[in-house]
Amino acid sequence: MTVPTALIAEDEPLLAQALRSELAAAWPALQVVATVGDGLSAVRESLRLLPQVLFLDIRMPGLDGLGAAAELADQWPVAEAPIPQLVFVTAYDEYAARAFDAQAIDYVLKPVQPARLQRTVARLQQALSVRPSAAAPNDVAASTLAQWRQLLAAAGRAPSTGAAGNAAPPLKFIAASDAGSAGTTVRMVPVEEIQYFEAADKYVRVLTPGNEYLIRTPLKQLLPQLDAQAFWQVHRAVVVRSDSVESVHRDDMGKTHLMLRGRAEKIPVSRLYAHLFRAM
Amino acid sequence: MTIRWYDAARHYLQVVAFCSAVAVLTNLIWPLKGYLAQLGYSLSVGTLTWLVMEFGRYLVPERHCHRASDGGRGWPHGWRGLALTAAAIGLGFIGGGRIGDFFWGYGLVSSTRDNNISLAITIVAGAIASFYFHTRGRAAALVALKNAAERDASEAKLRLLETQLEPHMLFNTLANLRVLITTDPPRAVAMLDRLNSYLRVTLAGSRVVAHPLSAEFERLSDYLELMSVRMGERLRYRIDAPDDLRRVPVPPLLLQPLVENSIRHGLEPKVEGGLITVRARRQGAQLIIEVLDTGVGLADADPGDGDGVGVGVGVGSGFGIAQVRERLTTVYGDVASLRLSTRAGGGTAAVLTLPLPDTDTSP
Question: Across the A/B interface, how many CB contacts are shorter than 8 Å?
Fold first, then answer.
């Protein structure tokens, strides 16, 4: 039986210290292997130390907790260590806290409340105890990833679309500028012609069989306005039209990519979304 | 378009009272014809005149009308209003006379001279009544305007208080305080004292017009100290006011939104944090106050809390800046200014230029 290990990512030093000491009281066996103050350090240290539990603050400088989790989901060396248990840390007046409460998702509240933390610890202990004896490691990994997906979806949904649901009908056209026109010409691109969207720096590229356009609306805001049956998010930065997918490939490293009809480029698929393309 | 029947009925009651008074006057001129008949004539003329005025204005397109105090259709502007009054009086005189003749049989007005007198009476009475309603409407509109202005002022005050006392900042400070109470009681007490003086000034600040620059800088240092307990090493700050400017009066907590922006949009997104410098200097007859940071700068700053994980009560940077500008205009007119720019070495500079009061420019 190994010693359970954890990493804390929290940008406010006093609150990190508080979480650490409350955890020491609630779970004396837990060894906190690193405490970091930003998302990039969280990714780097997690990949180096491979802890079993991650406590990630949602609001952090550099890369936020959601970005760090998405990054870790893709880069985690599954052959070396199982995907860790993920717990988000958030203050009560932040949007994510309300989203978690609404969906009965466990999280750590700032300031830490011992009774609540005790419940989180009990759940984590239970989850970790299932792991070593698992006959089918892939199933465990799949269920852990499903939890990560659920957490990221709840925390990442824009507040405006959270409560109202999908009231507006899906978009029929995307008003985009030509990739070369410097915004002087706006084209109404029919949604059914679009093969995929790719986030690039400050823009989102919109790709059709013959053309490329640019829009400024972030993917996160665009996604709720698209028909969820027709468009799938396959990566943090990519949304594809599901019926333009021609083939799905897995390489030796366990990474997945897509080929689209009539296109030569490989589309990366995040581990978080690879479940969409399992063979039937 | 909705016709306000209650108002119309109220107006008509006043018209009836006025017509009764006019009938008393005509009864003095033509004593032989009896008060009831005179009242009948007077009411016929008055009612018709009132009907044309009350409902005739709905025929004038809305863009040519005043807005009534309660949002309803007001009286038409300019010549349209005069034309409507004239039409109403003319129609009232001719039509009302006919109706009177029909009900009371004999011609009340028998000679040209009588006819002229009664036309004069109708015009004068009509003008007096129109003037009365016009003045009343105007007074009501002014009262409504004043009420709206008062409401706006108290709303602005409330919004100001909300930006100065941001809930997220308060909760976070309390969360940190909670940790310090067990781990470092002396520091907890010091932080509590800072919070205390910060809260006192913030809550009183919406009522005080001005306080000395030294007090303004002390409150900023309270705020920055609270934030630096939260952010630890990532927030460093320097506050610098020359002695001869310490007593210059400034609007309370004018600078806080600028410092808040520097923290939220400058230092918070930056992993290594940075330095905030607040300093004042004299330039001729002007006071220059600068809030400088070494954060991510204007161009790279997060355009708002649109990422879904922002604070619950979002008060974007745009509002903070707009609010500072609004206060400058209210207090100083157009002689004060606020300029934001990206600094050469990275980070943002907010530069306030205020007029120095005369007594201080020649010490």
Answer: 85
